[in-house]
Amino acid sequence: MALFPDSALQPGVRKREVFGWAMYDFANSGYTTVVITAVFAAYFVGGLAQGAAWGPLAWTVALSISYAIVMFTMPAIGAWADLHAAKKRLLMGVTAGCVVGTAALALTPGMAGTAGGIALAMGLVVISNTFYSYGESLTGAFLPELATAEGMGKVSGWGWGFGYIGGMLALGICLAYVLWAQGKGLPASNFVPVTMLITAVIYGLAACVTFALLPERAKPQAGRRGGGAWRQLRKTFGEARAHRDFMWLLACTVCYQGGVAVAITLAAIYAEQVIGFVPHETMMLIFVLNIAAALGAFGFGYVQDRVGHRLSLAVTLVAWIVVCVVAGTAGSKGQFWVAATIAGLAMGSSQSAGRAMAGVLAPPRQLAEFFGLWSFSTRLASIVGPLGYGLITWATGGNQRVAILATSGLFVAGIALLMPIDMRRGREAALAA
Prior knowledge:
Blueprint: H1 15-38, H2 40-48, H3 55-84, H4 87-104, H5 115-140, H6 143-146, H7 152-183, H8 188-213, H9 222-225, H10 229-238, H11 244-275, H12 279-307, H13 309-329, H14 333-361, H15 367-395, H16 400-418, H17 423-432
Helix pairs in contact: 1-5, 1-7, 1-8, 1-11, 2-3, 2-11, 3-5, 3-10, 3-15, 4-5, 4-8, 5-15, 7-8, 7-12, 7-14, 11-12, 11-14, 11-15, 11-16, 12-13, 12-14, 13-14, 13-16, 15-16
C-alpha cells in the first residue's frame, strides 16, 4: 500500500482504510461515466426523445431537479450525520438507492418515443442521481479524517484517480458488450438496458469494499444534539464571516463546476449530435477521456500539495477555457479528440483540487455539514451549467456550438472568484471553530 505516503495520513489512520475510501470513488464513477456521460445521456436524446430539439433540455431538466433536491437537503443531512456520527450508515443507504435506480433504467428503452418512456426515464434519473450525489458528498466528508492538510491533495487525487479507473472498467465492459451487440445487428434499445445492469452491479460490488474497510471515526456530538440539524445548519450560515475563505470557495465552485458539469452531462450528446460520432466511437472517446482524467488526478495531487491549492486550481480552469474554445470551433473528429483529451486532464485535476480545498477549509468537528455546503454549491453548479447549456441550445434552434462557447464564461468567473481565497487564513479559521 505504498500508494498513500505515511506523511499524508492522519495519525492512527491505516492505509487499508484510505484504500477502502478510495474504492468508493472507484465504485460510483461507473454511474457518471456510463449513465450520465457516455451511454444513457446520448440514448435519452437520440433514442427516447428521437433527436427532438427539446431533448437536451429535457435531459438537463431531469438532472437539475435531482440537483435541486440535493441542494436543499444535503447540508441538513450532513449536519445530522455529524451530530450522530452516521456518515457510513447514510452512505450505505444512499448507495443502495442509486444501485437500484440505475438498474431500473434498464426498463426505459422499450418505451422509446412515448411520453411515458420519457417521464419514466426522467424520474429514474432524478432518483438515481439524487442518491449518487448524496453518496459523493458523504464520502468526501471522510477525507479530512484520513489525510493531513499537507497531504489532502495527494489523497484526494488518488481517490479521483481510482474513480476514473472504475469508470473505465465499467465503460470498458459496456463497450465490449455494445460492440458485440452491434456486430449481431442489435439496436440500441437492446444493448442499453444491459449496460445499465452492468453499471449497477459494479457499483454495488465495489462499494462493499468501502463498507468493509472504512470505519466511522467520528463520535456522536451530544453537546450539539439538542439544537437539531436544521438549527445547526442555520447557525453555520450565520457564522459565514468566520469561514469567509470557505464561502469564497463555494462561490467559485458554483461557477467552475457548472462548466465541468456541462462536460460530464453533455459530452456524448455534443459528440454525436454536432461532431457526428456513432455510439461506439462516443464510448471510446469517453474511455480515453477517463484515462486522461485519471492521469490528471493522480499527478496533479502531488503538484497541488507542492505549489498550493489555489494556483493549481487556477491552472486547471485556464485549461477548461481552452477546451471550450477548441470544442466549440472543432470542424473534425480529430479536433474534438484534442479537446476531449485536454478536458480529461483538466477534469481530474480540477475536481481533485476542489475537494482537497474543501477538506482543508472545513472545521474538523463539522466535516459532513461543511461538505454538505460544498455539495450544495456543486449541485447548484450542476443546475446552472447544464440547464444554461440546454436553454441556449433550445433558444438558438439547436446550436450547441454557441452553448459550449458560452460555457467558457463560467470558468472565467471561477478564476475571478478564486483570487480572494487565502488558504492559510481559511485553515486557521477552520481549526479555531
